[in-house]
Amino acid sequence: MFGFREPKKTAREQAREAKREIAHGQRDLEREKMALERQEKQLIVDIKKAAKDGNQAGTKILAKQLVQIRQQKDKLSLMKLNLNGVAMQASSMATQQLMVATMEKTTKTMVATNKQMDMNRFQKTLMEYEKQNEMMNIREEMIDDTLIDAFDEDEDEENLVVDQVLSEVGLDLHTLMADAPKHVDPMLLQMPEAPKEKQATSLH
């Protein structure tokens, strides 16, 4: 009415409805089975009474009715088992439909992603990144070499300044280094002198 369409139900919703209908049918079957069991019990009582009264014809008729009721009970039990199988099948189909829907969504996402990714652009970006990274490494090496050379030049300049100052006061750096006392181990200076008696004994 008014062009309104009911939205399509999902597989999970359809499975829920199927389970509800099957459960309702199973309850109806169970009620029918319980009614037959009550009739069965009453027939057994009537059969015993008819047999006790010697009513052979009535006993046979009641016995046939008992057989029919038990056959109906067996049919109801079989129908209930079939409904259980249908419920399991409906649940399995719903699961399969859900899996298919999930795979379809995943496939669409993958297709859209692949369309958006331009391989040529990706390769160019990767090459540019490698180029810039290599240039950065080269610049770092050049900066390191420049710093090392600068420190070496500073040390040479310091030595020249020292030589100039010493020459102005009439001294020579090499002469000072030659006249400077040799390095002596401080541990040797701290060692106590040996007693004279022991020195004399050692001479003998």
Domain tally: 2
H/E element string?
HHHHHH
Ranges with pLDDT <50 over ≥5 residues? 198-204
* Tally of individual helices: 6
General form: rod-shaped
The Rg value, from CA coordinates, equals 55 Å
What class do helices, strands and sheet pairing give?
A: mainly alpha
Portion of residues in beta strands equals under 5%
The major beta sheet can be summarized as:
none
Number of strands: 0
Query: How far apart lie the N and C ends?
Result: 138 Å
Q: What fraction, in percent, of the residue positions are helical?
A: over 70%
Region (Disordered): 1-31
Coiled coil: 112-139
InterPro entries: Snf7_fam (IPR005024)
Organism: Thraustotheca clavata
Describe the overall structure.
- Pfam families: Snf7.
- InterPro entries: Snf7_fam.
- Residues 112-139 form a coiled coil.
- Residues 1-31 are annotated as: Disordered.
- This is Charged multivesicular body protein 2a.
- The protein is built from 6 helices and no strands.
- It folds into 2 domains: 11-117; 124-203, no CATH class.
- α1 packs antiparallel against α2 (56-116).
- The model is unreliable at 198-204 (pLDDT under 50).
- With 204 residues, it is mainly α.
